[in-house]
Fold this sequence. Notes:
Helix content of chain A: 10-25%
Oligomer: heterodimer
Shape of chain A: globular
Shape of chain B: globular
Radius of gyration of chain A: 37 Å
CATH class of the domain at 1-195 and 479-509 in chain B: Mainly Alpha
Structural class of chain B: mainly alpha
CATH architecture of the domain at 1-195 and 479-509 in chain B: Alpha Horseshoe
Number of helices of chain B: 22
Mean pLDDT of chain B: 83
Distance between the termini of chain A: 40 Å
Largest sheet of chain B: 3 strands, antiparallel
Strand order of the largest sheet of chain B: 2-8-11
Structural class of chain A: mainly beta
Low-confidence stretches of chain A: 1-65, 158-163, 920-924
Number of strands of chain B: 12
Number of helices of chain A: 13
Number of strands of chain A: 55
Amino acid sequence: MLGHVNTSISKKSSNVIFHIKNLNKDMKFKRLLLLKKVLMYSLYGIITQLLVGGMLLAAGNTHGQKVKSVKDVNVDISFTDEKLETVFSKIEDLTEYKFVFFEKDLSRKTRLSGSYKNTTLYEILLDISKESNLRFKQVNKNINVQKPNKKLKPLENEALVLVLKAIDIRGTVTDINGEPLPGVNIIIKGSTNGTVTDVDGNYKLTVADESSVLVFSYIGYETQEAAVGARQVINISMTPDLTSLEEIVVIGYGEIKKRDLTGAVVALSEEDMTTGAAVTSAAQMLQGRAAGVEVSSGDGKPGGELSIVIRGNSSISNSTEPLYVVDGFPIAAGVSINPADIESIDILKDASAAAIYGSRGSSGVVLITTKRGKRGKVSVTYDGFAGVQQINNTMEFLGWDEYAANRNAFYADGPNNGLPWYDAADLALENDTDWIEEGTRSAGIQSHTISASGGDETTRFSLSANSFSQEGVLLNTDFNRASVRLNVDRKFGKKANVGVNMYTARTKASEVWNRAGFRGNSVMYSLLMTAPGRAAYNPDGSYGNTVFSRDNANRPWINPLGRMEVPERDITGFRTYLTLWADYEIMEGLVAKVNVGYDNTTNTSSIFYPVAYSASGLRSNADIFEAKSTSSLIEGTLNYTPSLSEDNSLNILLGASNQYFDNYNFFARGRDFPTDQTSFYNLGSAAEQFIGSSRAASRIISFFGRANYSFRDKYLLTATLRADGASQLGRNNKWGAFPSASAAWRISEEDFLSSSNLVDNLKLRLAYGVTGNTNFSPYTSLARVGSTALYSYDGQSSGTGLTVDGVYAKNPDLKWETSRMLNIGLDFGFWGSRMFGSAEVYNTNTVDLIIDRPLPPSAGKVYKRANVGEMNNKGIELTLGGDILDGDFKWTASANLAKNVNTITKLAGAPISLNIERRPSWQTREHVFRQMIEGGEMGDFFGFVYAGIIQPGETYTPQPNSVAGQAKYEDINGDGVIDGDDRTVIGNATPDFIWGLNNRFSYKGFSLDVFFQGVQGNDVLNIRALMIDEFTSTKANDRYSSINPSGTRPGLSYFYGEYGSYVNTEFIEDASYVRLKNVVLTYKFNSSNISWLQNAEIYVQAQNLLTFTQYSGFDPEVSFNYGGSSRAVGRGVDDNGFPNFRTYTVGVRLSF
Amino acid sequence: MMIMKMIKIPLLALGLMLISIMSCKEQLTETIYSEVIADTAYETEADAEVLILGAYAGLKGWSQGFAAYYKHNYIQLSELPTDYGQDTWSPGTDPLETGTWDGNQQFILDVWASAYLVVDRANFAISTLEGMDIDANAKAGFIAEAKFLRALAYYDLTFNFKDVVLKLGESEDLPLSPQAEVITQILKDLTDAIAVLPSSDVYDGVGRATKGAALGLRAKTNLNAKNWAAAAVDAKAVIDLGEYDLMPAGQLLSLYDANNRSDNEFIFAVQSETGTAGATNTLSWFALAGTYQSGGWGNLTVSVDFYNSFDLNDERRTLMANGYQDSRMRTGDDGDMYFAAPNTPEYDALAIAPGIDLVDNTSVPFIKYAGGHDRFAPHLGAGTGVNYIVLRYADILLTRAEGLNETGDQAGAMALVNEVRARAGVADLVGLSQTALRDAILEERAKELFMEGSRRLDLIRSGRYIELWRAGLEAKYPGSNFNYLDDSKIYFPVPQIEIDANEQISTGG
């Protein structure tokens, strides 16, 4: 038994995948947990105390007889005029004692002489003491040599210390919240002597002397040591052990010990996530950190939102972003939170875990827990960093000479009938502008967070304030956020707790016009496409206004730098969320809790384009768009943990909640202002004015329950049921039920494994659950009427009136999308959990997919939004972690890998096509890039197969009008003509697998984190390449033309050809990548000698330091919202995104 | 005490919350703000009128890319696949002219979809009106108008497509109903409407359904259903209303004048506002070209043979060959711009100035949609506001004539035909046999009603559709082979998109 205890408590933090939570997430649950602990451990503690403690005491006595007192040891020895060291050395040779001394304490002048026969060592030392003015103290076999304490009276015979003098130590052991911990083992270091705390966490122990060190250990907590020193009372607060199986996981409306988990849940603590510089959102903290959780940024815009897909896309029409729950409050949309406030993130991946969130759970649930105060003294922490971000530009551009020569040749060959594009005056221009260089910059980033937290017996608080500012790598872009968080809770009596969580933030950003999918006016394209022959700036510093001979005087060229810097774009947001909660222990084991939440967001986006820079180039334009959204929540839960027999434990949760969402938009636009000076502050002065507004509200009412049962800690069962009623559902289907059941078997607790040295944790999990997706707009199911031009029956009176919507038919049967997921998981830990991890296999069938079903025209409507599609996602996930090296130099590593396979199993009739919004030229016929068909995958690209170029003299029958140098495409259907029917699946944007690998090396105060992350086997449609390879990039040199007849890339009509389309295999690229995502070198100062400093760290960090990819664009990570409400549907198109960047930062963390 | 009070708060709140959740049903009913929901959108009599005007607007509204049929589409569908209709727009309407359409032909699909948009709005109006608490007479009147509109849409559907989906409520995916059932429903709706609808003076015009319009449409329905006697009776009922007459001879052009839209020769004509692009009649864009109609295409024309078949004194002949057609214009000796198609007397009469290159032409434009303007008037811009004629008095006279001839009253029939001929300035018919008169009426209908959306149904009814259509094509395009035209082309195919999306049709129900 002792051996087992020791094994458990010796697990040191090998971190990475799992972690332990504070036990204080939720007072109510903590108390329950405590009760359970008392039940479990008081018995354990008593047994330990009786058996182990008793045995140790006995052992101690036996031991005492073995070490003899100096009074009992007689020696024969003589020395003449010898140094103290020599005398000690002689005594050591004759006895089993060792002298322990500091050289400086021994006077060099002292010379001793003496001769003893069968004299006790005590008497000899007494004589030496008198001669040398030293004191001696025997501790076991050591004789400590000390200079005398001046404060003590020089009593002759007491100059020698009493042998084995005992000090009585007492104290209380608590957890970090100040709750007493019974059954804690306390052992005197270097011995097997010790004791165990009682039910109140108190202990008493006798130690040899001040130099003794106590070792406190307790299952689930980190082992602590305390030097006795001068103290007689030693109170200890135990910190939870990060890798222990006692790890607590947040599972929605409660917590559970990790070992009792039955579903697929990933729990990440602060140190398992990417933190520090340039982590501006919770999603960024997760990238690459959890198996099966795919995070993609796609756009390096400061403050830009990321997309999270958990276990593949399970919807075509609805958003597949997971549900975010912050401190128990399901957040309406988008999480604005200071990453430094996040204590932990738990991800409910499988349906059995997410079913507690019912109709909102099918894309997974991300539970965010913010930092709380700890009982004890107040600590103040400063956490700050500053750094610089740089664009990662791998593309090469042509200089003006080559650019102009190529372009002239292409035009002379083709549309311009032998005439060049640039005339001699144009060619004589000496500009050679690198527009990317001019339009981008090294951008600064900094963040400062000050937080204070602490508490006493009844009250805990945590207060933090953050200021974050980030410049964008494109000129005139930035993002700033100031936020304050306050978490307070207070105990009333022994049974009630009341708390409040509050977060408020203001964000302010400046942007340039750069939207994925809009090429013409987007600045990224302007920078990429502008001829290097134009000047960035005039000699006087104004924006360059080079004029080429062919420029249209009515539509003059607008310098992209001016377009970036002159128009004003101010995006200001305010967000506040507030949660008030109270709980009460009605009777032992039964706790009621009420939670009231409110979330309010206001975003105002103001844009002004002065005359010279408006899209039309003719009229100034100002827009103000304001969006307000609020969400309010009231929920109540009852949590019951009955006292059952030792073998059985049960926890039952019942709850109800009611959440309301309200979104209001207001829009105003002015066109044609008398002056540019008033910007967007005087819309009333515009010649043309437009306004608009809209409001939509929805509500979800839920009842839920969950039961966790465990038998002998070996067999675990969880059952969940949630019933959701959502207002946006059709009248006939307002309510849905979402059940789940899961079981786990802790094989390692079985007799045949419990004594194994190899396996110390092995758990098999099986889960099945049903979740839903109701992520669609209110009013979708209703018969709506819209404004239409009325019939002017007399040919004079016109007007508008309300007519039934001719596009969408009402659908009173509209309901949630339903996902049914089967999950099998295996958790394991080997060699004392030096190596641990888990493996998961899942299969999800999603039915009732909401699709705009094309109606037969006879219906009089075009679509019916109906539950008609079906989809399957299946995959595997592996997580592996280990302590590779332990000792002074530590190396821990963790890795995760996930593969998901998506199949569309049913659609409503016609395939669903997504289009590239803007075509490079109106002449290009086809612009579908994705077609979803039954049996296909959601990420499939659809297009033509490029087959090289037409060689001089070659006739390619399927393209009878082609000339040499033009692209040719494969005649897929073999009908002898290249047309739309020759398109096929030409790639897939979904990765084959995604992975992450973290290594942490530490040596003394240094630690080094090296985090790799990657995506394998995904394709990207590189529309950017199509744009820049025409003229600007060095690849334009490979195009076939009259001056380059050996060119291998298409020359004429590459971009605007009669045949084929720009959506072809030539622009489908493998975007697999391996990225050194994050490297952090931290030095932690030894602050143990500085009483006012708890912790001091300094770190340097680099993000996106290295990227290994064959992808030719700025960044292989692209994720744009093309043609669908769900960004995931349109993934994999690289079109004009804000370039990604590297970040280098220096940061400090100080705690007082 | 304080503490005891505070700890009861959670319990109290929990209890209150549970009680509040009890009223789930109400809470889950959506609260509407900026949207308008059909159930609550219409309350007053004024709302009811909006509802019915919205249904009328379906006649020329747009529905998700389906160009509405009473702006131009139905005319092209009814006039191009005939003996005289001719187009110059190869990819767009060639398949209509030559009968090479398939189930994906856009114009056919447009008419099908647009007609059902009207059916859907009429159905919606009827069911909404029935639930409204407004004046009973007003309500009955609006319902009667909706039934007229529904009958009109089904008239166009069943006589062009034969068996069609008969949708009278909100259901989707209905099977095809036999033509006889559809005709029964049309007659029922019209009979209901006739009992309620007012006379034409109520609306100060001809733009809304009246008793005369419903009677006239029932006459035409019976005519196409070959219920000859009933057709004659209904047509007589229209005549006996005394509300309608013929535009006097010599003023025929003014019948098509945008400023004469409520002339009492019209029984039902869809109205348009001049200049408002959204609501206008866009036939002029197709029928007139170049400088006459800014941006017009001039690809809806009649054949030269048809033009030449008119008596030189026939006033109706002046409605053709007068428009500017930029590629065919030339300056006459008087300095004015003239147009003339080759092989016409005007062409031959014009002196051709040296150096002017006349483009060879084989089709003749017409100016029924020019807004009443002749060749020298300035063009009208985007919207002519000209009537889209659904029913006019001349049609009713010829309808009764046809009914009488088929039931043996040749004299009565000829008298009616001669009323029409007299107005055009051509000689009376005399002493024709039933068979000869049948042919004469068919020809008279062509000359009187050409390009007004009647020809295809007239030809189908005559039983000589394929024969005459093929002959017309062979004359227009000598040397081409039109043997592929057979009885399968009498009716348009149900559009493929309907078959694909409608499980009741694609799987046979």
